[in-house]
Amino acid sequence: MKDIQPLESWSVVKNGGPIAIAGPCSAESEEQLMETCRQITEEIDITMLRAGIWKPRTRPGSFEGIGEEGLKWFANVKKELNMPITTEVANAQHVELALKYGADVLWIGARSTVNPFTIQEIADALKGVDVPVMIKNPINPDLALWKGAIERIYGAGIRQIAGIHRGFSSFEKTKYRNVPMWKLAIALKTELPNLPLICDPSHIGGTRDLIYPVSQKAIDLDFDGLMIETHRDPDNAWSDASQQVTPKRLAEILNEVKIRKSTTDAEEVNNKLDDLRSKIDRLDTELLDVMSQRMSVVNEIGDYKRENNLTVFQAGRWIDIFQNRPEQAEKLGIGKSFMEQLFKLIHDESIRVQTKVVNTEKA
Ligand SMILES: C=C(O[C@@H]1C=C(C(=O)O)C=C[C@H]1O)C(=O)O
């Protein structure tokens, strides 16, 4: 999927990244939608307006979206404010209607991404259509499922695709509504480096006070844009009231977020970075060398255990190491839990290697 296009190729993206997308969680009334969008465009220059027309809700009985009527309002907003619009689609009929009313970009929600049948239905409806599609991560932290959805939309011929990171459901209570697990977004970017990534701090945070820190974190991780739910009267929103911000607050957040570039043309900066990275290269070589020496000793201990009929796993010794190394690390200013994880990995590898050694007769 190397020919997935950068955001700059989307006709709706005028000034390059990072882009901002904002608008209400749901279209509620023509007046609410128009007023919210008008206030947003008066407060700040954004790339695109968003509004939910069909809302997949966790439990029945909640407001499930206004439906086709809302698309007529949204089309008026587009015309009146001269702004591109985007909405969520969850089946073939949604695709058809959203395009009929002039949606410039479509997005697929987290609850749809989990279901390959749904994604395939949407992909089939998109065959031969030229519209950018943004695909939210599935609600569960499954990278293959996210990638699979991207592949299906790509298979329909769409090349303007972006991922939207909206965090992952978790059984445990956390300060987030959906835990970010940034490493999944990093893994996706590692596998598909040319895929634009947009962050949805509203669904990750779930509360207004988390929108700014989550947005900054996303920009620090080189995300290409932010999608922030914005409502003229968030407290009285029909859905997701606690995470929507006012247009005024949206502008504050976007102005406060410090934009960082992924690269620079400044020769001096690049030279300094090159120097420091050479140091890292040398240190990594030393690290690998030390690791290889440690593994040799592990092998030797394995031989000795075989000869003396001793178990591979030695709980006492391992518990000592597991307590001691992170404490040593902490004194050196290295994170304790990082070292715990690292030593667990090292120990797993020792067990794997020694299991092989003790079960192989010496020639
Ligand atoms: C190397 C040994 O075998 C295993 C691996 C360990 C390690 O990698 O440090 C520690 C304890 C054992 O579970 C050992 O017994 O010392």
TrEMBL record:
Pfam families: CM_2, DAHP_synth_1. One of its GO terms (molecular function) is transferase activity. Residues 267-358 form the Chorismate mutase domain. It is an enzyme of class 5 (isomerase). Its EC number is 5.4.99.5. InterPro entries: Aldolase_TIM, Chorismate_II_sf, Class-I_DAHP_synthase, CM_dom_sf, CM_II_prokaryot, DAHP1/KDSA. Gene3D superfamilies: Aldolase class I (3.20.20.70), Chorismate mutase (1.20.59.10). Keywords: Coiled coil, Transferase. GO terms for biological process: chorismate metabolic process. Residues 259-293 form a coiled coil. This is chorismate mutase.
